[in-house]
Amino acid sequence: MSTTNRRRGAALYYATRDGQSRRIAEHIFGRLAQCETLSPPKDLALTPPAAADLAAASVIVLVAAVRYGKHLPEADRFLAAYRSLASPPPLALASVNLTARKPAKTTATGNAYLRKLIARHRLAPALAVAFAGRLDYRRYGWLDRQIIRFIMLLTRGPTDPETNVEYTSWPAVDEFAARIAGLQSGAILHPMTHTSKR
Ligand SMILES: Cc1cc2nc3c(=O)[nH]c(=O)nc-3n(C[C@H](O)[C@H](O)[C@H](O)COP(=O)(O)O)c2cc1C
C-alpha cells in the first residue's frame, strides 16, 4: 500500500488570538465534514501536532492570523515541522489579515505576508489564499488600538474606535474548502489564486 493510500483525512489547524482564524477553520471543517469524517480543527497554541499526525494526513490545512507584520509564532513553528517531513502531504494555506480586505491582496502573489511566509519556509502549497479578518477596536488594548487606527488611516480603513467589522468573505472560504475537497479527490491539481473578492 502506498503512503498516499495509508493517509487518513484532512487535518485542520489554526493560529489565532482574537478568534477569526478559528471561525474560518471551523467553517472549512463544516464544509469538509459533509463529505468525510475528520477531526475538528486544532488550535496550534494548545496542541502542537506530532510529526506522525502530519505525515498521516491526506491534506494539511493551516489558517493563520497576522499580527504586526508576521504570522503568529505557533504557525511558524508548525510550518517548520511540516517542512521537516520526509514526504509532506499537500498543504492548503490561509493567511488571515486586514490587508486582505483589498481584493488585490488576497492571493499568494498579492499579499506580502503570505508571499513572505511561503518564501521563508520554502513552501510549495497546493492552495494559498489570504482572507480578510475582523477589525474590532473595542477588543484591543489602548496601544494596539491607536497603532491599528493609525495603520487604517494610512490604508484608508475605518478609524472610528467603535468600529467592529467582519471583512471575511465567507463565499471565498467556501471556495477554498471546495478546492481542498477537490485536492483530496485529485480533481484540482493546480495552485489556487484568488483574483477577486465577492
Ligand atoms: C495587535 C494586532 C496587530 C495586527 N497586525 C496586523 C498587520 O500587521 N497586518 C494586517 O493586515 N492585519 C493586522 N491585524 C489584523 C488581524 O490580522 C485581524 O484582526 C485578524 O482577524 C486577526 O485574526 P485572529 O482573530 O484569528 O487573531 C492586527 C490585529 C491586531 C489586534
Structure, explained:
The chain has 198 residues and is α/β, with parallel strands linked by helices. Helix content is 36%, strand content 19%. The protein has seven helices and eight strands, in the order αβαβαββαβαββαβα. It has helices at 3-6, 20-32, 51-56, 73-83, 112-120, 142-154, 170-185, and strands at 10-15, 42-43, 59-67, 70-71, 91-97, 127-132, 134-136, 164-166. Strands 1, 2, 3, 4, 5 and 6 form a six-stranded mixed β-sheet that branches. The chain has a two-stranded antiparallel ribbon with strand order 7-8. Helix 5 (112-120) links the parallel strand 5 (91-97) and strand 6 (127-132). The radius of gyration is 17 Å and the shape is globular. Residues 1-5 and 187-198 have low confidence and may be disordered. Residues 16-21, 65-69, 96-99, 133-135, 140, 144, 148 line the site of flavin mononucleotide.
- Based on Cα principal axes, name the global outline: globular
Instruction: Work out the radius of gyration.
Output: 17 Å
Helix content: 25-40%
Terminal Cα span: 43 Å
**Number of DSSP strands?**
8
Detail the poorly predicted runs: 1-5, 187-198
Largest sheet: 6 strands, mixed
Which characteristics define this entry?
alpha/beta; six-stranded mixed β-sheet; two-stranded antiparallel ribbon; 7 helices; disordered N terminus; 8 strands; disordered C terminus; 198 residues; binds flavin mononucleotide; globular; single chain
SSE blueprint and pairings:
Blueprint: H1 3-6, E1 10-15, H2 20-32, E2 42-43, H3 51-56, E3 59-67, E4 70-71, H4 73-83, E5 91-97, H5 112-120, E6 127-132, E7 134-136, H6 142-154, E8 164-166, H7 170-185
Parallel strand pairs: 1-2, 1-3, 3-5, 5-6
Antiparallel strand pairs: 3-4, 7-8
Bound molecules: flavin mononucleotide (FMN).
